[in-house]
Write a structure and sequence with these properties.
36% of the residues lie in helices and 12% in strands. It has helices at residues 14-22, 45-55, 68-73, 90-93, 96-106, 131-150, 183-197, 208-211, 217-220, 240-254, 282-297, 391-404, 427-441, 462-486, 489-493, 498-502; strands spanning 31-35, 58-63, 80-85, 116-121, 158-160, 162-164, 168-170, 178-179, 202-205, 228-230, 235-237, 262-267, 312-314, 382-385, 455-458. The two termini are 36 Å apart. Bound molecules: 2-acetamido-2-deoxy-beta-D-glucopyranose (NAG) (3 copies). One 2-acetamido-2-deoxy-beta-D-glucopyranose binds next to helix 5.
């Protein structure tokens, strides 16, 4: 993270107090945004750069053209900047002298003051269907790279190009992901070869929002859900993004490029849409982006790409009022034009709360505690019902989990009549079993213990809880104990949870 200069001290204003309230500490300083500017009401780029640096954890920005004013605004911020060559310039960039001229005009004057790290040659070029653009894409990338090398910048600045998921002809199940025939061997294979030889990532724009229906909304939003089983791998996918990433991975792997890094160049969720549009809204947008950031930074990876993290760029920094198309297109922004958050997504710095427009950081510490979202998950965390959660909500959690766990380990058998955990026969005790079973089975993601805010994660040594809560929810802790002691029946179930990782 770049160092910031010491700013002037200001008395907190109502606005800064608001910022403190919405601050969170969910990320570990690795999140990017797309800074689109199809709007007539945005603040000046210098103000935007200062705001991102001082008030947010955003440390990467992608812009959609090589706009010198924007590039210059990020000078001396340390923020990593990606610029995009507009699609219509691609054919000309295959000409070396044009490419050299391009680097001389748009890159060299601003580097290294502005931390330019990547040039994207066009955007979703294969989806344009334009044969000239598609045919010159890889040559343009190669030529631009040669021009960078000529300026001794090829080791500092990468070249790539982002794709829509439309490049896949098959995406379900994820293990059967394939690129469109015709593009696969003739365009994508050389493209992937170029990326590998220049140590650059493959970039994609996955949007679960555009792929979801009423039935798959929870799946798209990383909320608890039944998931989808990939019959080839027997892997159960519990969020759509993982399935999309793994479909792309499978397609790359079938061409021999499973080793390349994948970058999420765009993804997001609109805070407003047409009434008929499933899922658009502030609450869902906040949830998607928050869960997204946790997930991509968690180091969990995806089922087919374990332990990877994904450099990710949220679309978009601002709502863009001049964008054509349906309402949602103008409402993907994290911030309004006055730099107020469109919703609380946890990217404001916890201790620095400022609107660049009116004040510098205050000395007020954040009341928020890290929730462990960015932390590596391990054994030693359990999901329990929150103190005071009402019985109806807990019953709903039980019903939900028992549906979701069908076929996974013993499911809810233990809390059904005759099961080991049937007693104590109270909703609270059964919920304690069910919620933790779900959390462990899904891989201990914080969001798997949310249960519409009735769940809480605890790291308290279960042996202490055993004494304390024996009559309330002992099965949760029996689960832990049996597991630790002799790896018995509970351990079979915990093949998905504690035992696998804890031993
Ligand atoms: C290549 O680019 C240079 C510089 O822009 C231009 O003068 C030249 O005509 C171009 N060559 C071709 C074949 O288009
Ligand atoms: C992923 O990380 C875990 C825990 O560190 C390790 O045991 C496992 O081997 C890793 N898997 C891969 C494929 O690297
Ligand atoms: C953030 O990253 C640093 C360095 O990788 C690590 O030491 C720290 O524990 C991380 N913090 C969180 C909250 O994940």
């Amino acid at each position: 993270m770049a160092a910031s200069s010491s700013p002037p001290h200001h008395v907190p204003t109502a606005l800064t107090l608001l910022f403190i309230l919405v601050s969170a500490t969910t990320t570990n300083g690795s999140i990017g945004v797309n800074y689109g500017t199809v709007a007539d009401d945005l603040p000046p780029p210098g103000e935007v750069a200062r705001f991102l640096l001082q008030s947010t954890v955003i440390n990467r920005v992608r812009i959609f053209d090589p706009n010198p004013e924007l590039i210059q605004a990020f000078a001396h911020t340390g923020i990593q900047i990606t610029v995009t060559v507009p699609n219509d310039q691609i054919p000309r960039l295959a000409n070396l002298s044009f490419a050299q001229q391009w680097i001389k005009s748009y890159i060299q004057p601003y580097f290294p003051a502005t931390n330019l790290v990547r040039i994207l040659v066009g955007n979703e070029v294969l989806s344009t269907g334009n044969r000239l653009l598609i045919g010159t894409l890889v040559p343009a990338m190669q030529t631009l790279h040669a021009a960078l090398a000529g300026a001794s910048l090829d080791r500092r600045i990468q070249i790539s190009t982002p794709h829509s998921l439309g490049i896949l002809s098959a995406s379900t199940p994820p293990s059967a992901g394939k690129f469109h025939g015709g593009y696969d061997v003739h365009i994508l294979k050389p493209l992937l070869g170029f990326l590998r030889s220049t140590n650059s990532p493959f970039m994609i724009n996955p949007y679960p929002f555009f792929g979801c229906s009423e039935e798959t909304l929870d799946y798209a939003l990383f909320r608890p859900n039944l998931g989808f089983l990939d019959p080839n791998t027997r892997i159960r996918y519990t969020n759509m993004l993982d399935a999309q990433l793994d479909a792309v991975f499978s397609a790359m792997k079938s061409l021999g490029f499973g080793d390349l890094e994948i970058v999420i160049a765009e993804t997001g969720w609109p805070s407003k849409g047409e009434p008929s549009q499933i899922g658009a809204g502030q609450e869902n947008a906040a949830q998607y982006n928050r869960n997204l950031m946790r997930h991509v930074n968690s180091g969990d990876g995806t089922p087919l790409m374990p332990n990877r993290t994904f450099e990710t760029y949220i679309f978009s920094l601002f709502n863009e009022d001049l964008k054509p198309g349906p309402t949602c297109e103008r409402n993907f922004g994290l911030f309004g034009p006055d730099l107020t958050p469109a919703y609380d997504v946890g990217i404001l710095r916890p201790t620095v709360s400022t609107a660049a427009r009116s004040s510098g950081p205050t000395a007020t510490p954040s009341p928020a505690e890290p929730d462990g979202g960015g932390e590596r998950k391990g054994a030693g965390k359990w999901c329990v019902a929150k103190e005071g959660a009402d019985v109806d909500s807990l019953q709903r959690n039980i019903d939900y989990v028992c549906g979701a766990l069908v076929g996974l380990g013993p499911g809810c058998g233990p809390i059904q009549e005759g099961g080991e955990c049937f007693f104590p026969d109270t909703v609270r005790a059964h919920a304690a079993y069910a919620m933790n079973a779900f959390y462990q089975a899904m891989g201990r993601n914080d969001y798997d213990c949310d249960f519409r805010r009735t769940g809480a994660i605890t790291a308290v040594d279960p042996s202490l809880l055993l004494l304390k809560l024996r009559f309330d929810s002992f099965c949760v802790y029996a689960f832990i104990f049996t597991c630790d002691d002799d790896g018995g029946r509970w351990c079979n179930f915990a093949g998905y949870g504690n035992c696998k990782y804890g031993h």
